[in-house]
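HOLO CASE FILE
Compound: magnesium ion
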Amino acid sequence: MNSADMPIRGTAAACSPGIMIGHLQKVSSGEFPIPERHIEADRVAAEITRFEQAVADSVADFDRERHHLIGLESQEPLHILDSQRMMLLDAELGRKVIDNIRTQCINAEWAVHRQIQDIASVFDRIDDVYLRARKSDIQHIGRRILSNLAGCDQEVLPINTNDEPLVVAGEDFTPIDVLRLWRRGVTGFISEKGGPSAHSIIIARGIGMTALMGVDGIIQQISDGDRIIIDGEQGVWIINPSPASEEEYRTRASGVQRVTHDLQVYAALASRSSDGHPLLLMANLELEEELPQAREHGIEGVGLYRTEFLLSVAEQLPNEEMHYQHYARVMAAMQGLPVTFRLMDIGGEKPLLFEQFTGHRVIAANPALGLRGIRLLLHNEAMLQDQLRALLRASRHGELQILVPMVSRVEEMQEVRRQLAVCADELGITRMPSLGAMIEVPAAVMIADSLAEVCDFFSIGTNDLIQYTLAADRADEEVAYLYDTAHPALEPMLRLCVRSAHKAGIPIAMCGELAADLKWTELLMNMGFDSLSMGLHHVLPVRKHLACLNYRPET
Ligand code: PEP
Ligand code: MG
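Model generated. Tokens follow.
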């Protein structure tokens, strides 16, 4: 125990499964200062040695991470590490840094920084998407060497080498950070920024990490090595708990495990109300790693596969073949269950690696209102067509649907449909997959009647619909109190969408987080939703709840 050894306790929005008891490690984020100074000629040799040692330490960092990744089903992280390690050992880089130290009499940090900037600016000028994307690799390598020169690792996320669970605390964690932490054996995280609907937390739920986001001021209150309890279900955190509370939470954690175990009986049952009304329960998935366990949760299909997360493990912007291989694996793992793939929803809160891969700017002044989802795809037709062609090819392996993100105009759906038809024609595919719109922008609700005429199904994305309707950023803890599912604006909007879908005779699903909220199950069923799609861990609790409800359709 470190933080004055006194228990400190707080609450945050409950946003992930499970209870985690472990020790804490802080993670710093952001840029760090680079000292620039001239050195005496007799310091040159020592400075070169410092640089060489930092490179050797950086290679060791890579090797340590590499070792940790061996055994993962996905090979992508290993490939990324190996290619970066090769760049780190590039003789040209080392020679130029050493030349700079020697001829300019400058310290190693300055020489590294200069060299990295020089290389990065060359990449900027190259008119080749793949090569330009290597710029971020070189910057990453530069940061790693600089970290080691500083004598402390400011770049590498922690790896859990203990049996004891490790929880990391930081200012903010992006979805990619979460994946990287998970791959390093970290079992939970707590952050100052973010909220219960942030993508990072959605990912955490998907992979079963316990986490709390939006815990303002936590960093000031903790020290490395502190013990911590995170109750993701109740939104409680305790630093340096007393032995009595640790015991209490251990008991509760085994209670949670027991409940999970007892729910397994529902995995084999169909999703029906007590009087037999069907309401399909599907899974929201993002990662291949989730596939092996998905079927154990008794899902009736995948209602939302967030394909943009392919970018979080890829080394380049996925081409048609990479997309296809991925989707074919998903279809095979689902063994005949229907799968709804959402076209890549890049932008907004998820810039992902798009910018590095393509050199195109995606972080707008107001990202949530900028080039995001279908808007971005329609600006990058080759990318859209690669994905459509891959999905069409994968549709030969089973029941596949395509979902379009961030639709706000009828013309967007018409254009996607037109391009889908062109691609199908080229591929000789005659059985077209269903094409549906995400309803997650208030304008889409208001034009739901006309949209329904050009869609085969609707899926309501409440995470964004709430954000855009209430003008409350889904990931901003400062306005989390306004991001309110009980706001009276929401229910009539849902009803409008259901009515339009029914009028046009198309199915309607919900794939936002609200779909997993037990307080809403009865209302959503009675409104007329055909299916609900949610994080894997929610499927069985919702099925159990549904089995106690009676269907009373709204007229
Ligand atoms: C939504 O907006 O509700 C949704 C499901 O999409 P995402 O959370 O990926 O934005
Ligand atoms: Mg959305």
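CASE NOTES: The two ends are 60 Å apart (CA to CA). The longest strand covers residues 19-26.
CLOSED: yes
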